[in-house]
Amino acid sequence: MAFNPQDDQVVDKTAFKTTRQVLLTRFEPGRIVNDRFEVVELIGEGGMGMVFRATDLRLNRDVALKVPLPELLEDAEVLKRFQREVALSTTLGHPNIVRVHDLHEESTANISFFSMEYLTGQILRSKLLEEECLALDRVKVILDQILSGLGHAHQKGVLHRDIKPENIFLCKDGTVKLMDFGIASPIRKTSRWTQLQPSGTFDYMAPELRQQKDPSPASDIYSVGVVLYEMLTGDLPVGRFECPQLWIPASTQSGMKSSTSV
Q1: pLDDT 10s per residue in the chain (262 long)?
Q2: CA separation (Å) from 56 to 37, 106, 117, 162?
Q3: Which is the CATH superfamily of the domain at 121-255?
Q4: At the top level of CATH, which class does the domain 5-117 belong to?
Q5: Is residue 214 among the annotated active site residues?
Q6: 3-state DSSP call for residue 179?
Q7: Which of 141, 184, 191, 229 has the highest CB neighbour number within 10 Å of its CB?
C-alpha cells in the first residue's frame, strides 16, 4: 500500500529527502513504536509520506502504518484531510473497504500516523500496467466488489470522491478493497461546495465536479464508470466534449490528452 504517485509534487525534493530520513530512522525495521508496533519494512512512499508494515504486538497481527510528512500536517488543509480520512474510514466496516484502526502519535518525535489493515496484493493500476485491459469475467468480479463497498459508504452517508485504479486494491485472495478516503466527505443535503476548489483526479471526475458543482453519490458512480471503461479497453473515455477550464492550472492543461471520439 502506498501514497499516490500524483502527490509527489506536494513538497520540494530537498525537504522531502531530509524528512524521509527522519521517518526512516523513527520507523526503521525492528524498532518498536509506542510500545506497540514493531516495524517490519517500508512498503510504500510518495510525496505525502510513507507506509510501513508492522506487527501489532498487542493484537498479534500485521498492520500498515500510514505516516504523512510531519511538515505537511502543519498545513491546516492537509491536517484536516488526514484527520478526515481517519474519522470517516473508522465509521466504515465492510469487506470491500480497507479497515482503518486508529490514529496514533509517535511518542518521541510527535509524529502523527494511523494504523490500518495490512493488505497483500497490488493496486488495480499495477494490474492495468501489466495487462493493459482485463478479461470480462475478471472485470465483473472487480466491479461487483467496488460497487458493494461504495454502496456501503453511501449508505453510511460518505462520498469517496477519488475513485480511480490507484485507490482500488486487489488482494491475493481475490477480495477487492476501496482505499484512501483522504478527500472523502459526508453527503450534504444543502449546497456548500460551489465556492470550494474541486478535489479528486481530473480524468475520473464527473462533469459536474469539474464545473464546481455539488458532489453526490452519482459523482462516485461516474468515476466507477471511467474505471470500468479503462479495465475493459486500457484507455480513458475522453469523449466529444471540451474540458472545463475554470480551475485547471496551466501546467495541467498543457499535459491533458486531447479530446477524441469514442
Answers
A1: 444 444 444 445 555 566 788 888 889 999 999 999 999 999 988 777 889 999 999 999 999 999 988 777 777 777 777 777 788 788 889 999 999 998 888 767 778 898 999 999 999 999 999 998 999 999 999 999 999 999 999 999 888 989 999 999 999 999 999 998 765 555 554 444 333 445 678 899 888 888 888 888 999 999 999 999 999 999 998 755 555 444 444 444 444 443 333 3
A2: 5, 14, 11, 29
A3: Transferase(Phosphotransferase) domain 1 (1.10.510.10)
A4: alpha beta
A5: no
A6: coil
A7: 184
**Cell numbers 486531447 correspond to what residue?**
258
Which residue is associated with the grid cell 464508470? 225
- Name the amino acid, one letter, at 231: M
Q: Do residues 36 and 63 make contact, with C-beta atoms less than 8 angstroms apart?
A: no
CATH 1.10.510.10 occupies which residues in the chain?
A: 121-255
Sequence-distant (6+) residues with CB within 8 A of 28 are: 39
Active-site residue, from 56, 62, 162, 173: 162
- 237 is written with which cell numbers? 473515455
For residues 99 and 47, give the distance between their C-alpha atoms in angstroms, rounded to a whole number.
23
Alpha helices in 173-257 (DSSP H): 207-210, 217-233, 250-255
Provide the edge-to-edge strand list for the sheet that holds 61-68. Answer: 32-33, 37-46, 49-56, 61-68, 111-117, 100-106
* Single-letter amino acid, residue 123: I
> Minimal CA–CA distance to 64: which of 85, 79, 44?
44
C-alpha to C-alpha distance for 37 and 27, rounded to whole angstroms: 10
